[in-house]
Amino acid sequence: MKINCDENTLYDVAELFKNFSDSTRIRILYLLIDKERSVSEIAELLNMNQSAISHQLRLLKNSKLVRNRREGKTIYYSLADDHVLNIISQGIEHVNE
Amino acid sequence: MKINCDENTLYDVAELFKNFSDSTRIRILYLLIDKERSVSEIAELLNMNQSAISHQLRLLKNSKLVRNRREGKTIYYSLADDHVLNIISQGIEHVNE
DNA sequence: TGAACATATGAACATCTGTTCATATGTATT
DNA sequence: AATACATATGAACAGATGTTCATATGTTCA
Q1: 3.40.50.2300, 3.40.50.300, 3.40.50.720, 1.10.10.10: which CATH number matches B7-96?
Q2: Are B42 and B78 in contact (CB under 8 A)?
Q3: Å: B75 CA to D28 C1'
Q4: Strand D: which positions are within 7 A of a protein CB?
Q5: Which nucleotide lies at the shortest CA–C1' distance from A46?
Q6: Residue B38: helix, strand or coil by DSSP?
Q7: How do residues A72-95 score in pLDDT, each as one tens digit?
Q8: pTM beyond cutoff 0.90
Q9: Does B45 contact A at CB distance below 8 Å?
């Protein structure tokens, strides 16, 4: 495999992986592989408070790894694209060896 | 793609990605894609001091992402396996879109 | 053995990060 | 409009992280 990229790209890559480097965020992303979920649902599943989840979702949103949509009072988050899934599954593969 | 893993695995995955989430470390890894390199060579290429590089190499070594071998006074580091390359190139791909 | 060189290591420090708490914003219902 | 509910946000705090400095370790060669 041939790779070529400049230094700025590598900074961006580091930023990208930062999203996956925290257990809360990666567990959130993992939950979203299944289906879209509301903030409170995620909070409950991870047994964490709503604010913590909300803060992390904002980071993921800013990095364009998740999207959201409002339905009444509830906001549903979902994965932005397949890349996210691919990155996570590659990580899981690496760990399971 | 179907994924199934337990919570502990996700913690490990977060640990794995932590290695790629710092620009110094990812630039080190990127340099090692080419070929093995000594600590001082890496330090010079990244324009950083030897100690900083050495500390980061230790982290990468502990995570088994790099290996090293001694040749006289010099210690050469290289990527541990293709996974590392795969993860980086996937990150670059994602960023270049 | 002593000097020179390459790397590793521990302590100290500043910065970054994740969580909590309190509260604000936005929506639905009465 | 008032209340209840879901989410977002800012401040504060503790703990983690990355770099630097000083120095230790390990190797080679004279």
Answers
A1: 1.10.10.10
A2: no
A3: 14
A4: 4-11, 17-23, 26-29
A5: C19
A6: strand
A7: 999 999 999 999 999 999 999 999
A8: yes
A9: no
